[in-house]
Structures are given as structure tokens and as C-alpha cells.
Amino acid sequence: MTTSDDQGEITVSPQADLRSTLDIAEVAARSGVTVSALRYYEEKGLIASSGRRGLRRQFTDDVLQRLALVAIGRDAGFTLDEIAGMFGPDGEPAIDRALLSTRADDLDRTIRRLTVLRDGLRHAAACPAPRHLECPTFRRILAAAQRRPGRVSGRRPAGR
């Protein structure tokens, strides 16, 4: 469907008529996602605009829920490509439960590792030893860090 107004031509898909539309700036303001990220997400197929008003993309209001799902996926450590695969052909979430379970297990391991690291830092901060290398606990922490695979120059292994 195409209509015109004094600001220019509006082009909207037929299904968008059933829902209210938001301009890209409003989507950015309401979602906290930058306009450039919204454009990138559209390019990656994570979201789709419903049309344009002049040069500005328009989105149906359900884009906010979709962006919330993208945010949760990113927070959980999924790549954008993995997140894109979590939506069915109809645009509805179609998330593999086994994949979610695996990611939850990964997060549990990360939490355990970070808890040990936090406790070690607290110990190092409060340790009465004159130098950290004189503290047996700190030396054990260093030895454990040296044994961790993939830790070169503080970088994470590829693909993480």
C-alpha cells in the first residue's frame, strides 16, 4: 500500500496496516539500540522494516519484542548469525531448546570461573604478604591461569 502526505511518500507493506508503525529514531530511543545497529540488524536479517517515510525506515511495533530477544541472545553469548537462526520463516521465535541448554551450561562454567577469579582478587587485595608473589594462594592462582588453554596475551580463543 502506498499513500502520500506533506512529508513525502509513505510505503508500507500490507501486513503493517494492522499494527502501528515506528520510525527508526523512535525504535532506537525505545529499544536503546543505535540507529546504525538497527540498520546492521536489518542487513543481517534480524529485523525487517515495514516501509519508509521519505528516507526514514519504518518498523511495526513488534520489532521491539524482536530486539529484546536479540539483546537476550547477545547477553547469553550467541552470535548474531546464531540469533538470526532462532527465528522461523514466519519471523516468530523458533529456538532450539538443546542449544539453549548447552549455552546455559556454558554460562554456568563461566560463572564458576569468574567466581574463582573474583575470590582470588579479593584475597590478593587483602593478603598480608609483603609481596603478592610471596602469597601461596596468589601463586596457586597464577599457576592455574598458566594452565588454562588458549590464553595468550589475554586474548580469548577464536570463536568465543
From TrEMBL:
Keywords: DNA-binding. Residues 21-89 form the HTH merR-type domain. It holds the Pfam family MerR_1. GO terms for molecular function: DNA binding; DNA-binding transcription factor activity. The keyword DNA-binding applies. SMART domains: HTH_MERR (SM00422). This is DNA-binding transcriptional MerR regulator. It comes from Catenuloplanes atrovinosus.
